[in-house]
Amino acid sequence: xxxxxxxxxxxxxxxxxxxxxxxxxxxxxxxxxxxxxxxxxxxxxxxxxxxxxxxxxxxxxxxxxxxxxxxxxxxxxxxxxxxxxxxxxxxxxxxxxxxxxxxxxxxxxxxxxxxxxxxxxxxxxxxxxxxxxxxxxxxxxxxxxxxxxxxxxxxxxxxxxxxxxxxxxxxxxxxxxxxxxxxxxxxxxxxxxxxxxxxxxxxxxxxxxxxxxxxxxxxxxxxxxxxxxxxxxxxxxxxxxxxxxxxxxxxxxxxxxxxxxxxxxxxxxxxxxxxxxxxxxxx
Length: 283
Description:
Blueprint: H1 6-9, E1 21-25, E2 28-32, H2 35-46, H3 51-59, E3 67-69, E4 73-78, E5 88-99, E6 105-114, E7 124-134, E8 137-150, E9 156-168, E10 175-188, E11 199-209, E12 215-227, E13 235-242, E14 248-254, E15 260-265, E16 268-273
Antiparallel strand pairs: 1-2, 3-4, 4-5, 5-6, 6-7, 7-8, 8-9, 9-10, 10-11, 11-12, 12-13, 13-14, 14-15, 15-16
C-alpha cells in the first residue's frame, strides 16, 4: 500500500492551470488570460482529491485508530454500521486557516465516502464539501470517481464526474459553475509501491457558466498526459468555446515537465506560464 501524509498531498493541491479567455475587439477576437483561469478554477478545486494521494493517506488511518490530528487539520474515519472498515466515510477537517505547502489557505471540511479499496474494479469514491473554501473561494458540488477496471490497453481507468460544481468569490457577489466527465487512464506506475511514478492520460468534456453568465464548453481534443510528479499536464490539447465564438486551443507542449503552454485562436498564438489559479478574482 502506498503511504502518503496529507501534508505532502497539499503540495500538489495547486495542480494544473489553464489560462486564457475571449474578448471581442471590433471584428477580431483576441486572446486573454483571465476567463479560462476562472473557468478552470472549479476543475482544480475538485482535483484536490487525487485517487492515490487521499486514498492512501486515509487507508493509513486504521479502524482502531479512527482519528488522526495534525497541525491544522484532522482525519476522521467513520466505520459502517457493521463495524467493518469497508465501506466507510471519511471527514477531512481543516482549521480556520490551514496553509498548504503551496501557500493556499484551506478552511472547512471535505467528506469522502468510499465503497472499497481504490484498485478494486467497481469501487466508487464520492466527495462533497461542507463550508469548504480555498483562499476564501467557496467550493460546492459533488465529485464521483469510479474504478472501471482494466481497459482494452490493460490499463486501469477511472471515470471522474463533477456535478453541480460551483465556485463563489470571497465577497459572494459572483459564482462560476462547472460540470464535467473525464476518464483517467493509469498508463504507468500501477504495479509499484509509490505513486510518484504514476502517469495518467486524461480525456473528456466539461461545460458551465462564467462569472458574468457566459456559456462555455470544453473538450480535450488530444489526451492530456499528467505525471504525478508534475503540477501540470506535460502534453495534450484542450479546446474551449465561449458563447459560441471561435474556439481557443490550449496546448500543453512537447512532454516537458514545466509550466509553459500556448493558446491558439485562429492565426493568433500566445505563450503563457501556468500558475496558481486561486490567485483571487477580487485581489
